[in-house]
Write a structure and sequence with these properties.
two-stranded antiparallel sheet; single chain; DinB-like; 5% strand; mainly alpha
Length: 172
């Protein structure tokens, strides 16, 4: 079973995401998150989907698109680092990505299908990795980090946004 990464395996600003991930089978958690996201957002109305809880905040559709896009970026980093590529990998501007995503023009169902497809690809990649691959290190967003840390960041990032959706958008 994959163990949680330690300090030094990721930039400090990723700590809140890593800390949100419970102990246990990470790949199973990642698979179950798809069902949780679909159960939570699969029945929302269009009005709920474009709701913003405050001025300048993203809509629910934009949050869902952001989670999928961020996972794409993190999975790409995971692929490169796990394969032994030590080329420094740049950060990205999440707000720029959201502003060009056209998420609000897409249906909730389409966004959910996209998230599920990205997650299936992420888990497929992770299932290929051996112990040595998980321990490999590289540089992403100007900080050293491990492949293992990226897996936990992916899971924790989704948990973080699910919590925000429940608390601020749907008030569950």
């Amino acid at each position: 079973m994959l163990k949680k990464p330690q300090a030094g395996e990721f930039a400090e600003y990723f700590s809140p995401y890593v800390e949100l991930v419970p102990e246990g089978d990470l790949l199973l958690l990642l698979e179950k998150q798809v069902d949780e996201v679909i159960a939570l957002l699969g029945q929302i109305t269009e009005e709920q989907a474009v709701y913003r809880y405050a001025e300048g905040k993203w809509s629910l559709k934009e949050v869902l698109g952001h989670v999928a896009d961020t996972e794409r970026v993190m999975s790409y980093r995971l692929l490169r680092i796990s394969r032994g590529d030590t080329t420094p990998l740049p950060g990205f501007d999440e707000s720029l990505f959201v502003s060009h995503s056209h998420a609000n023009a897409r249906s909730v169902n389409e966004l959910l299908q996209d998230f599920a497809a990205v997650r299936i690809a992420t888990v497929s990649l992770m299932r290929q990795l051996d112990d040595a691959a998980w321990e490999r290190r590289g540089v992403f967003s100007d900080h050293p980090g491990s492949a293992r840390a990226l897996a936990y960041i992916i899971a924790g990032h989704a948990i973080h946004h699910l919590n925000i959706v429940k608390e601020r958008y749907l008030k569950v």
